[in-house]
Amino acid sequence: MSILLAMVPKLSVRELRQLASSNQLRATVPFAALVQQPPDELRRRAALQQPKTVVLPGKPQLARHALALVLGFEEMVAYPVGAGADRIESIGRAPENDIVVEDPSVSSAHGELTWQSGPSVVAIRDLGSTNGTFINGAQVGEQFAILTDGEVLSIGDAAFVYVTIDSLEGLLRMGGT
Question: Which residues contact 152 (CB under 8 A, 6 or more apart)?
Fold first, then answer.
């Protein structure tokens, strides 16, 4: 899967590590990020090759899906979300979207992400896409569904982990920034 970006900045996991090691991560990713996940088979193979267990207190779900950050998938991409004023950003395959995911399973205008700076809430809704939008396997409809730290967001077949800045910093530290 090739992922391109229109308006939201795209960073690789390698770039996230560099930002964290130079204490610049919060300036670039002030609230949270959607981190691309490698295909399931690659994640399984990588997990079997790792001698360490990844555990973040109180966040077992996040630990299960953190492999892109701690197991060396340096070219996976992340999209910072939730920065700045309240807003809605489009996500889909068409180039006019704010977040462009070039994957045949993603609809042209697949969904919308929204966030509110006051309570720091990020939510997504589906715009009637062909292959659906899912949070941890549960289908999201046309009403906004709130994302929480460590949840897997699937847009068609493209999967991302929603990670808050605090968890992102912890995972990058464990992965050897």
Answer: 37, 65, 134, 135, 136, 137, 159, 160, 161, 162
Q: What is the pTM of this model?
A: 0.75
Q: Cβ distance 38 to 67 under 8 Å? A: yes
pLDDT tens digits for 22-44? 888 888 887 788 877 665 554 44
Handedness of CA 4, 20, 43, 31 (dihedral sign): negative
**What is the sign, positive or negative, of the torsion defined by CA atoms of 9, 161, 138, 81?**
negative
- Which phi and psi angles does 14 have, rounded to 5°? -60, -45
pLDDT digits (tens, 9 = 90+) for 129-140: 999 999 989 999
The single-letter code of the amino acid at 54 is V
Contacts of 77 (CB under 8 A, 6+ apart): 3, 5, 10, 11, 12, 13, 35, 36
